[in-house]
Amino acid sequence: MRQLVTDWNLGDSGDDFYAALIAAHAGLTEEESRRFDLRLILLLVNHVGDDAVIQEALLRARHGLGK
Amino acid sequence: MARYEYKPFPYRKPPELAGGRSQRWPVLIVGAGPIGLSAAIDLALHGIPCVLLDDNNVVSRGSRAICWSKRSLEIFDRLGVGERMVKKGVTWKVGRLYHRDHEVYRFDLLPEAGHKNPAFINLQQYYVEQFLVERCMEFPELIELRFKNKVVGVQQASDGVRAHVETPDGTYHIEAAYLIACDGAKSAIRGLLGVEFKSHIFPEQFLITDVEMKADFPSERRFWFEPTFHNGQSALLHKQPDDIYRIDLQLTADADPKEETKPENVIPRVRAAVGERPFEIDWVSLYTFQCGRIDRFLHGRVIFAGDSAHVVSPFGARGGNGGIQDVDNLVWKLAIVIRDEAGEALLETYDAERVHGADENIRNSSQSTNFMTPKTPFEHMLRDEVLGFAETYPFARRLVNSGRLSLPCSLAGFSLQSPDDPAMSGAMAPGSACSDAPVLDASGRPGWLLDHLGGDFMVMSFGMPAPVRQDVRCIVIASEPMAGVETLCDEAGLVAQRYGGREGAAYVIRPDQHVAARFAEPTADKIATALARAKGAAV
User: Fold this and answer.
1) Per CATH, the architecture of B438-534 is what?
2) Which of B206, B43, B164, B63 is nearest to B122 (CA)?
3) Which residues 6+ apart lie within 8 Å of A20 measured at CB?
4) Does B376 sit within 8 Å of A25, measured CB to CB?
5) Whole-structure pTM over 0.90, yes or no?
6) Where are the CATH 3.40.30.10 domain residues in chain B?
7) Superfamily the domain B15-89+122-196+296-364 falls into
8) Size of interface A-B (CB pairs under 8 A)
9) Nearest to A8 among B371, B394, B401 (CB)
10) Percent of chain B at pLDDT exceeding 70
11) Which one has a higher pLDDT value, B178 or B501?
12) How close, in Å, is residue B388 to chain A by CA atoms?
């Protein structure tokens, strides 16, 4: 079973990715930003395609939020 | 510790106003900051006379640039002042990053041994300028320093420039084949020529303070996001020589410069940052940052270098260090063009290579500044989540950006470099700044590879002399001294390791210690072609 990668896996382009993500949100309303994020999640989750990895990511993302 | 004493440099009536003969200079440099002074020394090392004019007569007031990178120190070594700077400076290589009051992670900027110079030193700009001026004075036949000489007009012709200069004794004209404008971010030369400067200005303001105090703070760069001691976005602390500390505090865009720089407002902010210990304010300034450049660094016979050509925000130490790399790149080209050993088109490669370097610095320092100054609620939340994740997940640490510290710029792919030889491996591909490594010279004295490279073109080969027909300096990296050729012993094996230096391989190295070409199986033809290409010839 594969595990979620939490070591660096983004090539050399971390700062470029960060800038690209901000640029992608530019000019969006709050609701549009939220929709954008959801679309991005759906696309990437489908790309990952590994249920164990996705379940682990859901848990880790939830950690420390809510009750 | 005695505070730095600002000694004025002597003003002398220029010969043009003292009844002397005016001469036409090969090079006129405007601006006696670190960039202009380095350019003068580098020209002198190439035997080219220059005159350097500055409207002031004292070194930089206040520390200003303080972080000098390993690459700058290697260039300063080539200019003969590096060791003095390292001796005086505070050496560091570790950065620590805090979010609120706890450490998120630390980074080591030079994790491997076997380099002469440290990752960084902190040294106040006034010391750097003083050491460079004193080095200039060791070339009285080649460098003429003229303080309190202000350029108020520039005329260009196809073969040179004519500058109009104001002094306490009146005005005069001076002619030179080339003018290097090193007169800073507010360059008067740029204004006189009407060269447009395009930049992005960040609205946030930063309070930059140097304080003198006794403290046992480590020689590390410490950066806080949302520090508990400062009601702002970020804080940065650097240690300098003479018990001086640099504190950068981010303020909001609407902070009032006049109010914020008043001692009664600065002191409580500093006290909150450094705790209850006595300190004195040495220098204080409120900055907004901009990142940008002029389109071209060459305008006829006027060449821009340093802040006159490009400015960046200070996070990453890419301003002064970028300017020193400009000089390193420019001066050997200018020298061989002046000596007629290369066509004037070679200077175009200074524009291409250093515009590329400037863009890399602008991109990095803009991205750092953006990370520190989130513009929208979305950006703010993203930044907070990255910082939160960084405490748990290694990948997120690489997204945290408190400044990407200056590294040598690769010139791979530009016209002076030959295509890489696929049979070669290792990081030193054409365009790379040469890596350092420990070596023993022919008499068995320990030293450093970079102290033997640069200044002129050269060929470095492994285990045997390279097949070379030109009159070019050759050194061989070998296990034992060899007769009839300059040999460096690679006792630790680090030269071979860092250069992928298998027996017979050869590197063609530029005067600025960048790799122009490398060959696993060199021939005299391959080396001749690489040398010609590196001097700008069409091959």
Assistant:
1) 3-Layer(aba) Sandwich (3.40)
2) B63
3) none
4) yes
5) yes
6) 438-534
7) FAD/NAD(P)-binding domain (3.50.50.60)
8) 43
9) B394
10) 100
11) B178
12) 10
